[in-house]
Amino acid sequence: MLKIEHYTKSYGNKKAVDDLSLHILPGEIYGFIGHNGAGKTTTIKACCGILQFDSGEIYVDGISIRENPLACKKRLAYIPDNPDLYDFMTGIQYLNFVADIFGIGAVDRQTKIHQYADAFDLTADLAQPVSAYSHGMKQKLAIISALIHDPKLIIMDEPFVGLDPKASYLLKETMRDICKGGGAIFFSTHVLDVAERLCDKVAIIRGGKLIKSGTMEEVKGDMSLESVFLELEERHD
Amino acid sequence: MIKTLLKKQIYEMFAFFYQSGKSGKRRSKLVLAGYVLLMTYLAAVMLLMFFQAANALCSPMTEAGLTWLYFALMGIIATALGVVGSIFFVHSGLYQAKDNELLLSMPIIPSQILFVRMAGLYGIVWGTEALVMIPAFIVYWMEGNRRISCVIAETLILFIFPLLALAISCILGWLIGMLSAHIGVRGKSFLSTALALIFLVGFYSFFMKAYSYLQLILVKKEALGGIMKYALYPLYQMGLGAAGSIPAFLRFVLIVLACFGTIYLLIGKSFVKILTSRQGNAKLQYKEKKLTVSTKSVTLLKKEFRRFTGSSTYMLNCGLGTVMLLFVTGFVLFKGAWLRELVMQIFGKESGMGMAFCCLMLCIMVTMNMTTAPSVSMEGKNLWIVQSMPVLAWDVLKAKLMLHLLITVIPAVPAAVCLMTVLESGLVAGVLVTGVILLFILLTASMGLALNLKFPNLDWANETVAVKQGIGMGLAMFGSWAVLMILSGIYYAAGRYFSTELYLICVIIIFAVADAWLVRWLKGRGAEILETL
């Protein structure tokens, strides 16, 4: 579903990500772990087609993001680490805007918005302007807007930050449901416990380079993901 | 502590100078020099304008023995300008600064925070008033009034006088804040826009009639001077003080300090309370209803329209042309005969000059609408939304262009049609004038958008920065005026060699070529820039 091949991105002389290759298959939840400034967001943004890169290729559902970004964007949903949404719209106006852009039919959008807004306890707040939302509510709205168009791939940057326990649980359940339906999830996180329990595969990045990847068992063995991560960090210091 | 806070405030105020709004990195020396040059040019234009106004007022006033009135009139202009320039910063600058909570959480006395915020506002008012008062004093000195006591008093007035405008701004800003707390976001935007429009209309009406007021004052100087001494008592004392009266100067200082001190104390009393209590609006209950389905283009246009109507700063700074064009239509409908008579008197019956002049006036009003010039910057931290969606960058740009075209074309066409009908310009000339205006609207829209793509500022905390301090905005406005000046200059110099209709056809061709080139650039390179911002 998402194939990253020899992806390299530099800012000036500094290589933010160097020759990264990952392959996320349909049905997989793929965790992306690394310290601050490791290159996670740079990789994620390139996968969503909002950041140009120097070399390598990124394919979404077999389509090159470089050559056909629009077709890729139709298949994916992106949730950034800090959901800065349109403050001048109400929650429902924002969801309707997203539905319009993705060409979702009237009945379908109504059903999906109702379903997910109810699930994430946001229905009562949909008439409020986004400017009145808390960080968690904005995060919920961004998640709902990502789900209403049934994406094949969801790319998330620190999706659990700001979510209340119920919403966090619900998001994890929804992630599993999407993968059961043949979709794929690629997300970055600092919450290693969540990654350990949720992910089928995991990749650890450090200083822009991939230092370990594979199934959860391959990466952590008998240890905890946290121990492995800290050990790898120490080894590469 | 105050020194550290003041340094932070000054850095915050001038951050757009040193820091790139696009990348957040420090600007290169070349770009910095460009900014300084542009700002110097803008300040020089304003200084020159007020120098001329002061020059026209000074001699007749001093000769009539009304030196105080000269300073008072310049003081009124300076105060009005200072209030207009600062009123919208008062509420956002004092109560809505994004680092208020951070500063309150630190071991800083709240009164120090207020002092620093006020100092920032004072800087804005001082900068605005100086554009009027410095030329006023220079003209007075040039008239031979260079006594040392006068120069000292005037220099002190230059720094004390802005406190009066700041006090007025604080009262009005506080009122706007109080009113807007009881209405929604959109209502708040419209309220702020309406208040500012009322203020501007009053300001310009006064300016339009300034000459007749001056004549009136000169004719009835004793009677009116007597009344105005009481009506404008602080300014009367300021005028006398500037002319060298030390007791008057001291009275002026006392009055200003008393006014400002009272306001400062009142604000100081409620400052922390307002900062630490969120009044909030009543929660709107969501009632599920059928959602409207729109095409991508329409939904993007709706988004632009919501952004525009959701911000009074955006509407006021970029949509004033719509109000002016609607006013022209109304004025022509009610005063058409009078206007026709006036145009005939000035330009003659057969000359096409009157028609060309009216076309130019409408084009100038068109330049008051500049929604595209800050539209990319206005995306700010929301830019990721359109970038990550399956929508062409050109469609996003097109929506920005469409908003500009809609809010300008809709009032411009009836204004042009009414004006040409009243002037009895004939069908061909009427169509040509309308054509020139329509193509000029597209030119200003696409030029503003292209310039904003070249000079975006996405890293702002207050939308005023995106709207008012964007280099693209200034360039688009001055660029549009430069186009009009060049074309008018050519017509004025060589108009007698060809008919106005022929000239309008040439202008249409020039505009059409420029429009086509700009739209092509926006579709290609412009879209690429938006994708990679």
Please render the helix and strand layout as text.
The complex is a heterodimer of chains A (237) and B (533).
Chain A (H helix, E strand, L loop, with lengths): L1 E10 L2 E11 L4 E6 L5 H8 L7 E6 L2 E2 L4 H7 E4 L11 H11 L4 H14 L15 H13 L5 E5 L7 H16 L3 E5 L3 H7 L2 E6 L2 E7 H5 L4 H11 L2
Parallel strand pairs in A: 3-8, 3-9, 6-7, 7-8
Antiparallel strand pairs in A: 1-2, 1-4, 4-5, 9-10
Helix pairs in contact in A: 4-5
Chain B lengths: L1 H12 L1 H4 L10 H35 L3 H28 L5 H5 L5 H33 L5 H13 L1 H19 L4 H24 L1 H10 L1 H11 L1 H10 L3 H31 L19 H14 L2 H7 L1 H28 L5 H14 L8 H5 L3 H6 L4 H30 L4 H28 L8 H6 L2 H24 L5 H33 L1
Q: Distance between termini of chain A?
A: 33 Å
Structural class of chain A: alpha/beta
Low-confidence stretches of chain B: none
Strand content range of chain A: 25-35%
For the largest interface in this structure, which chains are involved and how many residues does each contribute?
Answer: A-B, 45 and 39 residues
Question: What is the share of helical residues of chain B?
Answer: over 70%
- The assigned structural class of chain B equals mainly alpha
Mean pLDDT across the residues of chain A is 89
As an assembly, this protein is heterodimer
